[in-house]
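Batch job 17 of 40 flagged for manual review because the log was empty.
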Amino acid sequence: MTASVLAVVGARPNFVKAAPVIAALEAREGISVRVLHTGQHYDRALSGGFIERLGMRKPDANLEVGSGTHADQTAGVLVGTEKDLLEHPADLVLVPGDVNSTAGAALAASKLNVAVAHIEAGLRSRDWAMPEEVNRVVTDRVSDLLLCTSADAVENLAAEGIDGDAVQLVGNTMIDSLLRLLDGVDRPALLERHGVAGRGFALVTLHRPALVDDPELLGPTMDVLGEIGTRLPVLFPVHPRTRARLEAMGYSAAGQVRLMEPLDYTDFIGLEAEARLVVTDSGGVQEETTVLGTPCLTYRTTTERPITIELGTNRLVGVEPGALREAAERVLAEDVRAEPPEIPLWDGRAGQRAATAIEAVLAR
């Protein structure tokens, strides 16, 4: 008898996390996978063969929830996932990450008494001002299988009373995709196209509302990036939200700060691998830079990925322009780039381990 899995994905990073697990499940006998795209991220972020390069086929359906408030998105995913499950019954719903699509789909499945498996379970920033933290905790509470990237995530769940066979340490599935796709990136051509040299530029991503919606913070932060730009080029692929705020401020790039359109995923990881320094407020970028051995400054007060600081190349600098300036100066003063650290189970085989854990749940 065939067991059925509904994989629900919406934001681009979650395709990256889910793809290795979906591929591993589809390769196993007795398991069928249906892919539901919530449409939380615009199709442009998923265009240009991105999904195909991840090894995924085209999603079976698209809810097209689009942008909107957190309530709008979560409600749209909740209703849409429930409808899909009623029309196409599944034995288990697979959800990755911590976005609104994650929480909405997990809630829909739970209310229909369908098992839920959560990729990247147990991460905690303990910052309740972050919508992602709410999504993580809610999803973990209703999940039947919690697939963890690192030992600290297992410890977080145990502290919340979640343990036993429901919690499985499988490693980081996002790193599976990173390692597989990076081999195919023509880095010399990529650097030439952007007019930079290897280890001769900084790469920036900033998008969180706490920063970009505050002109009194965003303005001085851009000034610091301009200062860094006097020493080496700063490539800044600008999130639509951030671009709108910069335009409202009348900001014009200073020094060699290059405001760019969002990059294709493979181009982005290629630049991450070659950058002298990365400045970000993203979660996944902290992990990617750690595996690549690239110095990373996380422009936030908290991180749900402490392993990237304890074992990796990440530094948490807070959200204060002066602290960012000092941290960047320290990195740029260092001559030797560290060898990429070895993080347990971040080895490119996490998807297979996750699939094995899901297979065991389906068998029960």
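Reviewer: the log was empty due to a logging misconfiguration, but the result itself is present. The chain is about 45% helix and 15% strand. Unflagging and moving on to job 18.
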